[in-house]
Amino acid sequence: MGKAGKALKQVLETYDISQNRVATEMGIGRSNLHRWVNEIRDPGAEMVIQLRDALKQINPEAAREFVRLYLGDEEA
User: Fold this and answer.
1) What is the pLDDT at residue 2?
2) List of domains in the chain
3) CA angle 66, 67, 68 (to 5 degrees)
């Protein structure tokens, strides 16, 4: 459990983005983000896309890093 949560936590820390800011951008409660970051729950696929989009609005580089961490950086 928690690949998205681990990626999100690392991106929020690296880019100094608050959980509240992402939650506000997504239009969801901060408690949802807290559960994902702390690996209590995993976001569904639709929420992962919304996370990426919210991060892209805040910091496009953070969004790219989130996707890289979530999907992995393996060469094909």
Assistant:
1) 75
2) 3-71 (1.10.260)
3) 90
